[in-house]
Amino acid sequence: MKFSKIVFVSFIISLAVLIACDRDSATDSMMEPDLNLEEFVTDNFKEEVDEMPEILGGLEALSDKIKYPETAKDDEIEGTVFLFVYVDTDGKVAHTEVIEGVRDDLDFAAVEAVRQIEFIPGMKDDEPVGVRVTIPIQYRLSR
């Protein structure tokens, strides 16, 4: 059976409370090497905001960046990768964390896609703030 290259991707962005972070599940970090994740989060990201970050270009901008790895297609692997995405005050992705993965190749592809997008920063009291959002990326093969 041949699979088309169409990937249906669904996204939900939601605020996640920044209480504890599992440093072992961190996939990518652009923080200083001597600064641990807990300090990075505590110092740079808010738990409560007035406005959540928004993807510049909308969901289409993210969808355009997502690639379905050939290895996963060949093995007929489908699933949803859930990411914590730390958006800084400039709307840049400062850090990503796989909180529930499917398989390394899909997890990596999801992280790579998210790292390529920019956001309108979250706001608190009319000031841009760093915020953690949850982004699920669903991989489904069209049959």
**Average of per-residue pLDDT values:** 78
Let me know the number of strands: 11
In CATH, the architecture is: 2-Layer Sandwich
Query: Percent of residues in helical segments?
Result: 10-25%
Gross morphology: elongated
Radius of gyration, CA atoms, in whole angstroms: 16 Å
Portion in strands: 35-45%
CATH class: Alpha Beta
Q: What is the fold-level CATH name, i.e. the topology?
A: TolA/TonB C-terminal domain
Q: How far apart, in Å, are the first and last alpha carbons?
A: 8 Å
SS content category: alpha+beta
Domain tally: 1
CATH superfamily: TonB
Number of alpha- plus pi-helical segments: 4
Throw out a few tags for this protein.
alpha+beta, two-stranded antiparallel sheet, elongated, 143 residues, single chain, 11 strands, 36% strand
Topology:
Blueprint: E1 4-7, E2 14-15, E3 26-29, H1 37-44, E4 45-46, E5 54-55, H2 58-65, H3 70-74, E6 79-87, E7 93-100, H4 104-115, E8 119-120, E9 122-124, E10 127-139, E11 141-142
Parallel strand pairs: 4-10
Antiparallel strand pairs: 1-11, 2-10, 3-7, 5-8, 6-7, 6-10, 9-10
Report on the architecture of this protein.
The chain is of the alpha+beta class. The chain has one domain (4-142): TolA/TonB C-terminal domain (2-Layer Sandwich), CATH 3.30.2420. 23% of the residues lie in helices and 36% in strands. The strands form three sheets. Strands 2, 3, 4, 6, 7, 9 and 10 form a seven-stranded mixed β-sheet that branches. Strands 1-11 form a two-stranded antiparallel sheet. Strand 9 (122-124) and strand 10 (127-139) form a beta hairpin. The longest helix is centred in the last third of the chain and has 12 residues, at 104-115. It is elongated. Residues 1-34 have low confidence and may be disordered.
